[in-house]
Amino acid sequence: MVDNQQPAVDLAVRAGAPAMRTTVNEVAVEITGLNKWFGAFHVLRDVSFKVMRGERIVICGPSGSGKSTLLRCINRIEDWQQGRVIVDGVELTEDLKAIDEVRREVGMVFQQFNLFPHLTVLQNCTLAPIRVRHLPRRQAEELARHYLARVRIPEQADKYPMQLSGGQQQRVAIARALCMQPKIMLFDEPTSALDPEMVKEVLDTMVGLAMDGMTMLVVSHEMGFARQVASRMVLMDAGQIVEVNEPKAFFEHPQHERTKLFLSQILH
Amino acid sequence: METAYVRRELIAPLPPPLAVSGMLGFLRQRLFGSVLNACLTLIGLLLLIVLVPPSVRFLIVDAVWSGTSRTDCLVETLGRPVGACWPFIAAKFRQFMYGFYPESEQWRVNLTYALGVVLLVPLLIPRLPYKAANALAFFGVFPVVAFFLLVGNVLGLPHVETRLWGGMLVTLVISFTGIVGSLPLGILLALGRSSRLPVVRMLSVIFIEFWRGVPLITVLFFATYMLPLFLPASWRIDPLARVLVGVVLFAGAYMAEVVRGGLQAVPRGQYEGAIALGLGYWRMMGFVVMPQALKYVIPGIVNSFIALFKDTTLVLIVSIFDLLGQLRAAFADPNWATPVTLFTGFAFGGIVYFLISFAMSRYALYTERRLDTGARR
To answer: How is domain B161-371 classified at the CATH fold level?
Structure first.
């Protein structure tokens, strides 16, 4: 972890670069007055939040606080009853075209990996580029090998997911999402299902991605990772955003009582 | 007291002791491991002793292998116990295979079989290339070619009415149509029943429950005798075609429930993974969900196929003579009336049905193993 401190400083500079290049959409995700109910349960309560391009947002909070649900609204795996979600300038409505457009631009990594067990690692990575982006197979495979090399498992391309370790599977999942060349990446507790020995390899991959300026929203309780890469921290509780702050202030001078309690419980 | 311990050298793996591996270990553990186990082993042995020797004696040892009429299969003529009367099968073989399909046209049936085999065999061998083209040829082109080849009335081929068809030909035509038709229908119905759209779901449920709720015999009866009463007289639909449609719809409803079982075994995460990659409904189902769902229910699908294959014998009730129907018709021939004719005929029928069903079962098992990529641990 020590040797990772250096890039973290460098990171602020690099992360700024892509944001300055883009002139079209400075705002990556804009959520306004989002309300969602599961049956009678009010899971998201008037959530409003804006993510700028190149930002890395780490969302934490107790279980059941709605953080995963919020993340899943951004590519509309979950729908909602009230409020607006605009991703990369496209508003998510009932319009299927808009939804498809957003999903193509937003990559997602799940707690349980959700790799396709009947396809090889390479096929997992090429499926969407071929079927959704209509890339020629050769080009899709080239792309897949590139990203598999980037997550440092190029040699596993022809294996099936279940032949890999948890950490390797999660890195394949990241590569698979990257193959769609998304503008935004969502991570839903990417290391929670992993053996302790494998957490670091996945986090290292994510740090690398952050350093390349990817816009990232990460639901995670890996506070070391959060300190290292987050541009802002978000604490959610009972379906609401309780506190948003820069990591240093968030960890050292939490404002809200709930934040203090939460941090005291996870940073023993 | 020493509390700390540090291993200095690693233990190399050793082969297991002979008492638990090898032949002796197998006998001790699997066959005579406990009192109950030993009893079951002995009962099994007993069953083999009771069943196998008489069967072998009837089918092979005492069987009559050549002859031209019933007299060759009589105890009185031979002066020894008589087993199966195989000349009977030989004499009736054409009938068993083709029914009353005109003899001069039987090459068309053979050609159809040959075409089917030539297209099916490479399809079944995973290593061979061009699977998509092959599948298209077998499932798309072959049925059409087979239809015109068998029915005739084109390219100077004389028309052969389906009421002349019989025996193995009818069995295979009904089974093939049923199998090839019911799987896609079942998949569509299963998707319909799991759909979020209420109308689609309801129509699928009604369809499935209706066809599952009535016996196949009723379906066949209805299709053959009742339907013509409802339809205008000018709509004369071929009786075999009516039966085929009935069988496909019936088998499709069963298949739908098998496939739905598979759909339920696919974890939600698979859908979400596909959705998150931007795959739409049909691509998600086609490339991600359905391949896994179908793999989970291969045993159920094959179960349905085998059941369907054997259910084809029910068409006898509407005067269509499949293999079993032809057998029974042949029993009435006084030229072959002997005490063993019935047993011989059923033994032959049983062997044919068993071989085909068993082949399907084995191939399915092979497919299951081949497709096992360790999704379930």
So the answer is: MetI-like fold (1.10.3720)
